[in-house]
Amino acid sequence: MKKARLYIDKHMIVSRVDKRIYGSFIEHLGRAVYEGIYQPGQKTADEQGFRRDVMDLVRELGVPVVRYPGGNFVSGYNWQDGVGPRERRPEKLELAWQVVETNQFGLNEFADWCKKADTSVMMAVNLGTRGVDEARSIVEYCNVKDGGYYSSLRKRHGYEDPHNVKLWCLGNEMDGPWQIGHKTAEEYGRLASEAGRAMKWVDPDIELVACGSASLDMPTFGAWEDTVLSECYDEADYLSLHTYYGNRDNNTPDFLANTVAMDQFISSVVSICDAVKAKKRKTKTINLSFDEWNVWYHSNEQDKKIPRWSKAPHQLEDIYNFEDALLVAGMMITLLRHADRVKIACLAQLVNVIAPIMTSDSGAWRQTIFYPFQLISRYGRGTVLHTVAEVPVYESSHGDAPYLDSVCLMDEEQETLTIFAVNKDLEESMEISLDVRQFEGYQVKEHIVLRHDDLKAVNTEADPDQVVPRAGSVVAGASAKADGGVLTAVLPDKSFHVIRLGKA
User: Fold this and answer.
1) Catalytically active residues, by annotation
2) Cβ(471)–Cβ(494) under 8 Å?
3) What's the pLDDT at 504?
């Protein structure tokens, strides 16, 4: 059995958790909107066509903010196509995903859906085919009570009160040559600055996310961030990061080691943000919005077979397995370990499209990745403690990778200490120990384990409970107890754990 030791000090904090780190993403892509959150006539649909079964699962995930409407989709989107009477809304060829967009669901419907799903809107503006005029107009439509053409237009559409959208993305992945309206860093930085300034003139209370690199693998990574922020530092509040991981070579240890790459990615972008801050002699700090992250590779071959100009095809529908859930847990732990700078994050996406929730005409179910997200979203509140781990490592393509991904959070209001941990060893259990004498009188209140013998096990509509969390007391080899001021826990091979301590 491997052994690891964790070290924390209640006075050595990383940051309080911004709840928006548990955000998600809905794009007009595949069946995310149509047959996902919106399906008039489906047996659970409400009077607006919103699926109640999906809303129930979204509430269960505890998602505080949802990014919309893209993604690549936004760079060719005219938001005015999706507002007003449905019978007047045009069908359009959607170039990003080579489908037909019916525009039967749009901005107002999404704002209504967010209210019903107990979440809030993170809106992206089109800086691909449109620009400053688009940006200022949509902010007026969403946020201005009255006094202008677009605020009056919203009222004519039946929305007397503004939507009060306070978080906005300045385009999407504008460094990518696949992006409609792809721009150089200089071009995008200037446009983001001008659009952002106009948007904040309309509503000074909004926050803006500038586009960072579409991934760490982009040839312009680093230089892009430096140039963009040098242009729009005054207008931007956050810089975006995007990453997806896959296990195409069926090398699970290397796949699970992607948390090392994610950690390095975040640290690199923080360094660039701070370098620009120093270069420009600013006092404002740019924080991060990791507004696309997930596992994505299962559906790649299937998607090549989709006919062009389909309507809401089964697109990007990854069927997630147990090892994917382990990596998602590790990625969330990595985000929390950087909670001082990562304030917003969006699991991409929410329903059907590389998503924790899947639907059919008859029902909705939880994919394997649903559970780590739901558990960490529920219990990962309060303050992240600087968590140091002495743990064995193994070789990976990303460098030495620890067998354990872990982080500790303290919630002083609830008087709890929570440990999230993933044992990435595929064969051996791991015993961890943690000095908890600073938390006098705390005992283990709950131990939740996500584990399966088969790394490739999946949840389906017919068998939705193959991979589900269970109490540690019923998982063979798992244990957790606090005795004499020391927490000792045994984590079986390939498993994710939530250990919660509180006063006896």
Assistant:
1) 173, 292
2) no
3) 76
